[in-house]
């Protein structure tokens, strides 16, 4: 159910009947104030201006043709040509009943109509660099990507996750050289690699200071990329251990990525020479100072200097960029993507712009395949500088998440001193992880944001605990009323303004999800859920449910409304990968 879309179709039809050209934008939107109706159609003004006719007269004709029988209570004309639509309460109640009964909460499934085709969407997210442990920099890609993936799936699209792990860079040369020395000294791989961060640091110190080590490291890179068996065995040890690390994190974060979704840089190794050859043959790439490069004329500055995009280094090595070109081909040809979405921090924006230009020119990425690089800003500390440990080191993601749980536990314990330990732990994990995720997901992804424990764990404002609390309050109403939600169903009648506001909000779910999907912006869903929970709180204050002497039909109706809110909150939070609980 998408009210905005339905009204847009109706108003468009009326506009055509009023003599306006097919395709004129009806400009339907939610009204900013209740006295302007529930929805407004403002498209008449623009159309009248174009045709140089009186907007008010045109609006009158459009309204004459506008058939909203059964849907709207009344339609009113305001100002120079605004059309204000007041929806009918029983129509809203009927839509709500359909929504509550449906396991997809009334969200139309892609493919249900001819116009709304099911798409294959390849989503590239998380993608940590395996030589290191995951740090806070990979949090955003991982959780924003996962929320968009879940929204796409809920709407019925086919999603193919691609975890483009950095498992193949030159850094592996130094790591393999260091690891082979350790194994020669009879160390066990698991022990040597138990602290990846430390291992990386040791290797780097040797690389920078020890004579001959850097050369050995470079030999290892060449051997590894050439497919040397012994090297691959060492490399595999490394990869397996670091993948296991990331899997722990994914599980803790309640993220849907699995081992099957990994398609790391190494997977493209064999295709890289082919990509370079193809670009050379097509005359897109050329040799410049020994390297193979593409001059991107489309991005030339005003003096005509084009940026250089290197696809093969002088010594023959391939680059991150070459791999991304190969990935374009794989995703469109093999995976049959209609759209590719990539989540990385904003510093890679130029890289992906260049990849797209080159890939399109080389026909590795057909015109009909969408290519959306979705950049995000950085996590900042309270001091407004990039989020670091006190000593200026990068913060390991695993440690950050553990701290979230410890802090959440303290907050919950303060509220409920007599909860048993195991219950506290269970709630703390859901609240702590939820708080970190919601704080991040609720920000417009393109901007930097300040990471602050206190605000994210607060029970007030747009936070995970606030939403989780709203959910568990509804659960306690049902348990007080001794009603099982599973089989509960009742007619809803919308009487009070708070009830109408809730009904309107609940029926906006599809509209919001579509915006989340098209813009790759989970913050829109966060805002929506926060508004829904706030409306519920006002409804709860204004409209008694279990009060003695209440009309049984009103009680049933309000319970039905509560059920719809509870399902929507749970489902919405699930799309964000945040769990709820019966009591907190
Ligand atoms: N491993 C990269 C990083 O940590 C992100 C990879 C993103 N995906 C891609 N196709 N390049 O920055």
UniProtKB/TrEMBL annotation:
Residues of the DALR anticodon binding domain: 467-584
Reactions mediated catalytically: tRNA(Arg) + L-arginine + ATP = L-arginyl-tRNA(Arg) + AMP + diphosphate
GO biological process: arginyl-tRNA aminoacylation
Molecular-function annotations in GO: arginine-tRNA ligase activity; ATP binding
Motif ('HIGH' region): 128-138
Xref: PANTHER family: ARGININE--TRNA LIGASE, CYTOPLASMIC, ARGINYL-TRNA SYNTHETASE
HAMAP family linked to this entry: Arg_tRNA_synth (MF_00123)
Name under which the protein is recorded: Arginine--tRNA ligase
Organism annotation: Colwellia hornerae
